[in-house]
């Protein structure tokens, strides 16, 4: 019997060595991997691009907001006139719609005819969420109650339109009475920016209401005062 000491040393399996090398290589790569990110120059380029796009889009967005604002105000004027007509017929008494600019905020009131201003219950033409002082102008072509000015270029900031107990204009009233809204000019808050005008005109003695826009055209008798 051969001595156990004379047996050759046990050899390591090549497959085991290969597995250990692969594991060490994987761990080495995991430790030395780098996390990629944006450089300062790349971030500056993105910020500049966003600023340029915002500058291009801002005028268009402002125009859209102004258009929505005057359209909403025009709808409210129509609603106020129709409310006065309904109340006049329902209560069988004359009813008035009054308009004014109070601290550069357009307001309206629907109340029985000859009601004092302090008792009319004035309301903002648009809610405070949609309008701030100086952002919307309301004006009329009225010289006095149910009477319009002689010149289309003369604009009063206030006006009163009264319907009789039947919900129509009185016999002595004039037709073509108009309430207009617009975005005011920055250099003169009493004058509208061209192209932003929206108005409501009472066309007939029966109180027919018509919504219009843009400058007044004397040949078609359509549009908003003033004509220039």
Automatic annotation (TrEMBL):
Pfam families: N_methyl
Record field: transmembrane: 40-62
InterPro entries from the UniProt entry: N_methyl_site, Pilin-like
Sorted UniProt keywords: Membrane, Transmembrane, Transmembrane helix
Keyword Transmembrane assigned: yes
SUPFAM superfamilies (alphabetical): Pili subunits
UniProt KW Transferase keyword: no
Database matches in NCBIfam families: IV_pilin_GFxxxE (TIGR02532)
Protein name: Prepilin-type N-terminal cleavage/methylation domain-containing protein
Organism: Trichocoleus desertorum GB2-A4
